[in-house]
Specification:
- By secondary structure, the chain is mainly beta.
- The chain has one domain.
- It has no helices and 13 strands.
- The strands form 4 sheets. Strands 8-7-5-4-9-11 form a 6-stranded antiparallel sheet, with no helix packed on it. Strands 6-3-12 form a 3-stranded mixed sheet, with no helix packed on it.
- β1 and β2 form a beta hairpin.
């Protein structure tokens, strides 16, 4: 599991946390503050019109090809050099619902974040980007934000 994760033809690689803020965020409603996870991308003007994806699993989840193991997901088109969204509960078929996912205080979760040039959730090795290190673990202690600087992302591997 320390490489590329395959999910129904989708390769997923993961995340990193970098300290740059993005001001606008596509929250799309949902639940009150408390234990949400927001993903924010900055410095991505070079890939405007590409997409940012994130998938959240229980920490050390080994069955990442099983849609029932996916806890939360979301995506957004990159515009103005940034993208931002709150992770939403998964609908059981790799798609976000309208409800903010909320984690359990004190628990850790793995989040996989990558860009995709055409929005099909199937990144192209050597063209699309993934965060580094792999995977990023987020601990729920109130609302959390994972801030990713596009310039620190690495080529999506083969």
């Amino acid at each position: 599991m320390k490489g590329i994760i395959k999910r129904m033809g989708l390769a997923i690689l993961v995340i990193g946390m970098v300290g740059l803020a993005v001001t606008a965020c596509n929250t799309g409603g949902g639940t009150a503050a408390g234990s949400k996870v927001t993903v924010s991308l900055s410095n991505a003007a070079a890939v405007n019109d590409h997409y940012l994806y994130a998938y959240l699993y229980a920490e050390n989840e080994t069955d990442v090809n099983n849609p029932a193991a996916l806890l939360a997901t979301n995506s957004a088109q990159i515009a103005g050099g940034s993208a931002c969204f709150v992770l939403k509960a998964d609908d059981g078929s790799w798609m976000p619902t309208a409800t903010d996912w909320t984690g359990t205080e004190g628990l850790k979760y793995d989040v996989y974040i990558f860009t995709d040039s055409n929005g099909d959730a199937d990144p192209v090795p050597g063209s699309d980007k993934a965060t580094d290190p792999y995977p990023q673990t987020v601990t729920i202690n109130g609302d959390q934000t994972i801030e990713v600087d596009y310039t620190t992302m690495v080529d999506y591997p083969l």
